[in-house]
Amino acid sequence: MKWDEFSDWGKKIADWTQDYHLSVGKKPVRARTEPGDVLNALPAHPPEQGEAIEDIFRDFEQIVMPGITHWQHPRFFAYFNSNASAPSVLAEFLASAIAPQCMLWQTSPAATEMETRMMDWLRTALDLPDGFAGVIQDSASSATLAAVLTMREKAMNWQGNSQGLFSHKPLRIYCSSEVHTSIDRAIWVAGIGQDNLIRIPVQGDWRGMNPESLEAAIQVDLDSGYQPTGVILCVGGTGTGATDPVDRCLEIARKYGLYTHVDAAWAGSAMICPEYRHYWPGIDQADSIVFNPHKWLGVQFDCCAHFLKDPDDLVRTLAISPEYLKTHGKDGIINYSEWSVPLGRRFRALKLWFVIRTYGLEGLRQRLRNHVNWSVALHDRLAAEPDFRIVTPPMWSLWTFRYEPDGAVDLDDLNLRLVNAINDDGRIYLTQTRVDGDLVIRFQAGQFETTEQDVMMAYDVITEIARGI
Ligand SMILES: *Cc1c(COP(=O)(O)O)cnc(C)c1O
């Protein structure tokens, strides 16, 4: 393909994109393909000769699209949304057009400096204090890994990277039983070992870790010759929105000199609204905080905001700086690849700039507030239905329920059949989780274009399908 043929196809794809987003609400949310359908439709061998874009695009529509679950569907209430607002799609188009590799300041000064400014905009939007500096990571998993490596290096007096962990006493990291699996993987990858990730039991409606149990666990470890190293807090956990008592846990961590990382991958976006900040009191005492603008803020995947009270600890942990990477002659510049595990970096700040400017913080806040209010209204309606039990209350726009009609026996099986039937129906998409061993159904609203009617349709679908099974 020659570049002078590009604009023709670029326009076609822009038209296709607009039509897709305007009509996606009419499609079933979850893909209806069977395993192997797409694999079998793709030739086993690559073509020897080039093919026409017309043919490739036709196959894209015929083979790929039927196998897509529509994450941008207004009634996608499963998992957490991964929103791609229109300005973020445009910004990604431009970023892919110029395709810079932004590992160092000099490999694209604009990308680096815009990243600095955008992270400062986000810091201000979340009302985090001046001292915090930010970096855009590819995912919350990567940010958590970087934070765990930093905890490890600090606790080992910066010897872990050179000597490994072999002769060191076990490092201990504490978190609640509700944290995301990315925490476990970071612990594995950092060489700390699952056995040294200590789960603190949760309590109360917020399902947050019990601070007394946290302190007791640290004490036991100190007495037993382990080395307490860090605490990972959860604000808006994936299953039920579990949220630790941030101020009390951070206070205990500080008392014992432990590094702290707060995983607010989903709920962090909501902190642009002052009225939700009571969910993380004392957050300014954390060492590291992560949230994903690629979830609730409309900045499409991937874009993860990682804030650090002292970025030097992170850079000391991750920077290698061989000679060929040195940016000579420019003092005071930032090479963000020293702040993350991957070296190569996409130009992710551009879509933040487009999205924040297009909607303004007030436009973004309004969307988030709507999602929370509509979700709570739906919760109230389902709570009033005799055969349904609310299992966990709304945390922002996330809550869980269970269908428990009189006389039903195997409730886990019944609820699994219900969620499957709802998803086969196609009008909405929900996922399930477990709470204290019980299978429950999650509801979460956060799609950028969802409306009150979309959210209320979930009531009709859930109650209608429950009656039918
Ligand atoms: C989504 C999520 C993650 C993982 O985010 P990635 O960016 O996909 O790595 C981690 N923690 C929580 C609480 C999440 O909701």
Can you give keywords for this protein?
469 residues, alpha/beta, Aspartate Aminotransferase, domain 2, Aspartate Aminotransferase, domain 1, seven-stranded mixed β-sheet, four-stranded antiparallel β-sheet, 15 helices, globular, pyridoxal phosphate binding, decarboxylase, pyridoxal phosphate, PyrdxlP-dep_Trfase_small
Overview of the molecule:
Keywords: Decarboxylase, Lyase, Pyridoxal phosphate. InterPro entries: Aromatic_deC, PyrdxlP-dep_de-COase, PyrdxlP-dep_Trfase, PyrdxlP-dep_Trfase_major, PyrdxlP-dep_Trfase_small. The modification N6-(pyridoxal phosphate)lysine is found at residue 295. The chain is of the alpha/beta class. The protein folds into three domains: 3-81, dopa decarboxylase, N-terminal domain (Up-down Bundle); 101-346, Aspartate Aminotransferase, domain 2; 361-466, Aspartate Aminotransferase, domain 1, CATH 3.90.1150. Helix content is 42%, strand content 14%. The chain has 15 helices and 13 strands. The chain has helices at 6-23, 37-41, 53-64, 86-98, 109-125, 140-155, 160-163, 181-189, 211-223, 246-255, 293-296, 311-318, 349-383, 411-425, 452-468; strands spanning 133-137, 171-176, 197-200, 202-203, 208-209, 227-234, 259-263, 288-291, 304-308, 388-395, 398-403, 431-435, 438-444. The strands form three sheets. It has a seven-stranded mixed β-sheet with strand order 1-9-8-7-6-2-3, with helices on both faces. A four-stranded antiparallel β-sheet has the order 10-11-13-12, with helices on one face. The chain has a two-stranded antiparallel sheet with strand order 4-5. The protein is globular, with a radius of gyration of 24 Å. Residues 80, 139-141, 180, 182, 237-238, 263, 265-266, 292, 304 line the site of pyridoxal-5'-phosphate (PLP).
